[in-house]
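Appendix C: a fully annotated inverse folding record. The material below is reproduced so that readers can follow the format used throughout the book. The structure is listed first as tokens, followed by the designed sequence.
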């Protein structure tokens, strides 16, 4: 998804122990709030659901990586 382009701004680009939620600009709590607001508008509803599901899977990844990365 295009929402992951903000990962290219991070150094290093990939860190298996870094939580992307609230680290990358498009994964911030502010951005997630905007994605939630987009649910209320029919033209953007499908995109909003996709973005929120993406954030949910990234959040799950954060939770699971805490156990593996310490």
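Designed amino acids, in order:
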């Amino acid at each position: 998804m295009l929402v992951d382009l903000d990962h290219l701004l991070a150094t290093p680009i990939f860190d298996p122990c870094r939580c992307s939620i609230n680290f990358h600009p498009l994964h911030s709590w502010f951005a997630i709030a905007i994605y939630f607001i987009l649910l209320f508008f029919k033209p953007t509803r499908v995109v909003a659901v996709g973005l929120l599901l993406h954030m949910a899977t990234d959040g799950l990844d954060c939770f699971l990586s805490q156990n593996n990365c310490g």
